[in-house]
DNA sequence: GCTTGACCCTGTAACGATTACAAGGTTTAG
DNA sequence: CTAAACCTTGTAATCGTTACAGGGTCAAGC
């Protein structure tokens, strides 16, 4: 006797909004679920687990594409595990690069914050810095940082 | 005798693509420049400096909205400098939060990477972790991390 | 003269993941 | 019976940048 859940209940159980669940379905991370009498999506326990998988992957910062690859590996239990390890390692490397970049930015920013106490913007250290300082790299799009 | 530059030269001098420059104009960060004979945008030195300002702000990770606020402050030299300091401080705080979050993710990821040596995905530690592990926070959208 | 390539113009769509609608139908509680 | 809360679909917004399409202008080389 399998319990089934409508999308709203799945949402509150997984912490994943109904919109996102439908989105994952459209992207192919979730198989189209069965439909109830009124055409409502109906999810079983396995689907819940799969959504939890996606959710936890997201909470680790993995993108949906990587998660899709991991799900595909998980669907084929006989595959070599190296591929999964590669995805995680690649992401960890990516995270470490990003942390380093953000730390560098934070350091740069700490040098200018609180430098102009109660003055006028004409003499503001922050604004002066932005005008004068040369970014390290002037290549196209280089140095742009998300967040 | 003021030199003027077309958008392509501005691009190579500032490291900012022509598309981005036009984008900044559309968003109101740059005033619409003078136009040459064929309708080509024509930038003077002040515009170059302003684009450099934007560029450096972006390289520090500021969003365009914050940069616009800083530009507005810079355009009114008599304004109190506190506002600029607030923007920078807020951003620094934001950066530090993000660094902490990413470090936490990286730590979590380091625990699972390289745990499954040459096995099959059926026993893969990474995939098991994604299935089993409960994210700390199951609130809507909580725990999602960009990058 | 005529072609080729490098510029410039405008407007629109893509990226990634999510959210927010609109406009409709259904269930549930008071 | 009615109002709120749910479900359906599709589309558009967010952010900053890039990539087109479809067109115009100009200089160098043949």
TrEMBL record, chains A, B:
Family annotation (InterPro entries): DNA-bd_dom_put_sf, MerR-type_HTH_dom, MerR_fam, Tscrpt_reg_MerR_DNA-bd
Residue ranges constituting the HTH merR-type domain according to the UniProt record: 4-73
Keyword Transcription: yes
Pfam families per the UniProt record, alphabetical: MerR, MerR-DNA-bind
Keywords: DNA-binding, Transcription, Transcription regulation
Record bears the keyword DNA-binding: yes
SUPFAM superfamilies per UniProt: Putative DNA-binding domain
MF (Gene Ontology): DNA binding; DNA-binding transcription factor activity
PANTHER family: HTH-TYPE TRANSCRIPTIONAL REGULATOR ZNTR, REDOX-CYCLING DRUG-SENSING TRANSCRIPTIONAL ACTIVATOR SOXR
Identification of the protein by name: MerR family transcriptional regulator
Organism the protein comes from: Vreelandella andesensis
Lineage of source species: Bacteria, Pseudomonadati, Pseudomonadota, Gammaproteobacteria, Oceanospirillales
